[in-house]
Structure prediction request, 536 residues.
Amino acid sequence: MKRITALLEALGSALLLAGKAFVSLPAAPRILKRVSEQGYLVGYTTLPIVAILCFFIGAVLALQAGITLRDFGAKQLIGTLVGESMARELGPVMVAILLAGRVGSAVTAELASMKVSGEIDALVTMNIPPARLLVLPRLLAVLLVMPLLTMMGNIIGWFGGAIVSAQVKMIGVPTEMYFQNLKQYLSVGDVMDGLIKAEIFGFVIMLIACTTGLRTRGGPREIGFAVTKSVVYSLIAILTLDYFITKALS
Amino acid sequence: MSTPPPSSPSAPRGKMTQKPRRPVLVRDDRNAVRIDVEKLSKTYGSQQVLIDVSVDVKPGEIFTIMGPSGSGKTVLLRHIAGLESPTSGTVKINGYDPILPETRDRFAVALVFQSGALFNSQSVYDNLALYPLEHRLCPKPEIRDRVMRALKILSIENAAHKFPSELSGGMKKRVAIARALVMEPQLILYDEPTSELDPLMSATIAEIIATLKEEISVTTVVVSHDRALSLTISDRVALVHQGRLRAVEKPEALKNSSDPVVKAFLNPEIDVRNPRFKQLETVNHD
Prediction:
């Protein structure tokens, strides 16, 4: 019962925080510098790891599917399979998981440390709402950057699949055929579905990270717990939401 | 104190169009605020931290809250700053509840934290400029002047471009006070301003607190263990003991108090052969 109460309390806090942040939206032009700083952290610094992960996801997908499709004489469909899987499912989910682990944890640690050291209280006494100064720029940054990051991940994943399809002799699908097949069956709607997912995942991850950080009380040990909690909650949220969004979009 | 007095300023702070611009750091008696605490109690779980505390602080006064560690001094200060909500009782600043955002709009309240609570990711200059920038109090060149003047008053103008991690404990305290000054506060709250400082730096901080009262006529509430600071610069001193207000006196009257708790706190006896520690000594020798 206690856990359910705590969960509902955390959910309420998150919604309240999002509300407070978006009430400050008219101040957005004044926080553009902070939004761009956060955009750099969320997007640019995450891009290398997204590129590596998505390249190998695409490559492994092509390798696994290619051998099976060859056995059924349908190896020319590998472009569609990799393209659809990356765009609709693996791209958004993998980028979101990376975001939760890399950016979400860092945001929680930073805000929790600010809370524990009294910096958040200092902002409150200065009548500067933390939701405006610390949360809104992060939410706006993730909303702007997440679709770009996911799209980059998708493209890199498609190329990973193309390279494996062409280079692995057992599959042997030329790059031209791979992309022709990918273009033929992959619609803009499929890609958009994936990007909508990514947008929702990014928003939820950042909201969980900020809420968990700002609700931290205690000392260094509690900062560690908060980071773990933030990442675990984000992963659960990603996978749960993934099912419902997929169902809603299909 | 349920309705605000008619003389209370009613225009929200932070709006250039609604608030006449005041010169930086000049005497203005109208700014100092009054604090009324009535039957304030605070409970955390089963622990009663404050019990029926009633006290008033007059405008422009330096009011010091003393007491042993864990007696509830800082909790009382956090209630005045609007960072805690009372379990029962009320706290009012010029008749307004400090926890409400409207009250923060109305009065500038600065809290100098025990740790400084400086924004570690920002330089000293940015720490000081944050409040006027966020509230758009004045144009950037004026903010620069205001920040540099506050740094100069505290003799730390050379630290403007340093980060908090590069500062000593005393410097951090002075930056925290300078940050409070830039707010042109009507009420400054100091939480243990001389803790972890050497006697010379403590004296400097005490001088700064007293000078600021003269310079900008601000209401000042200090929480401190420091007997020298409390009894030298305060207009009145309160002693909190086990969550209750034990005494509120002028410093001279407090020094001559016949209350055994006050006497024990102000003049603690040091017994180098305290029998309480005899057994400990024996254990160590074994």
